[in-house]
Amino acid sequence: MPASDALISSIRAQEILDSRGTPTVKATITLQSGARASAAVPSGASTGSNEAVELRDGDPKRYFGKGVRKVIAHIEGEIAEAFKGRDVCNQAAIDAALIALDGTPNKARLGANALLAVSMAAARAAALVRGEPLHRSLCEKPSNLLPMPMFNVLNGGLHAPGSSLDFQEFMLVPMGAPSFSEAVRYAAETYHAIKELLIAQGHSTAVGDEGGFAPKLMGGNQAACELMVRGMERAGYRPGEDLAIALDPASTSFYKNGRYHLSRSGNQVLDSQEMVELYQGWLNVFPIVSIEDGHAEDDWAGFAAMTRQLGGQIQIVGDDNFVTNTRIIQRGIDEGTANASLIKLNQIGTVSETIAAVRLCQKVGWGSVMSHRSGETEDAFLSDFAVAVGAGQMKSGATARSERLAKYNRLMEIEAELGDRAEFVNPYR
Which of 8, 139, 329, 425 is the most buried (most CB within 10 A)? Predict the structure, then answer.
């Protein structure tokens, strides 16, 4: 018999707004002891077609159809009833029961946003019962490894429709920093240096969904990389040693009829191999260490060609093609279509399935990159998760916008808690 203070008394839910002003859901679990734990789920703009289903109301009179009252009804009704009196400390059992209750392969009936909110809140409640921080409670053998951060400094694509950049994310990687806290400093100083350069050139410093600047640069994507290098140098850092570049083209967003249409960067139209050659040319010029979604989610041949040609030099990350799904990641492993996977909790819909995706990557020597979504909340669950599983890498936007900084600030807090036990390594060596 579990201790009574670990048993669920009630589950409530609330419709809140994410960082784009779009509704999302927050769940709160109350235990029989009276202890409470809450969690809020994010939402993506650039999504893979095989992601678990995010349920919306579809009522055009409320939030243009994006309300989540149905999700709240599912949580407070069917889910709350099924989980009353259940031991919150068995995460695997909680998540298995959620999946079984939904009964669909993609969580379409109850909604992945409903399941994930409850799954995350349960993990937090279990940490309260154990009297441990979440990053120590979440896994049987928790890691002390702080993730190498990827800081978004320039936004394009679907995250910044008004910019001149086809690629969605241009990120700083402080691979030469001796600690996570110093990595944050490297990135913050470079972010401000890039802002100064943009102002000096007469560009707007408006930001995109993830806090990166969204300028109209002559020269498009390549000019963005050049600007990043200049920003590093202006801040007093050495490109390729102190700081590097990571890219997320989110190529599905500009893939049409078997070709890649770089309409904002000189109206180029490239095939899969020409995209590989484009990246190869940039590797010869810029300190790039990672490229995510360098091809469209259905272009598995393009991913494989890119991995064969560039995988020995840089990290090739799959996101929209893998969607944190172990079955699809395994296909990628078998076919050699990447050497790392992005990991997003809401792509798969439960904490346990997300842990399984990280463990699969670790088992075969792949990188795993924990990731936020473009529509975020102040919830920093992701940070504790990244440390607990020892993911080794994480991206959570720019050193701007509080929903992004909440994750980085929590990681600095964890680093301070761990003290001498904290580990921080360069995964690109």
Answer: 329
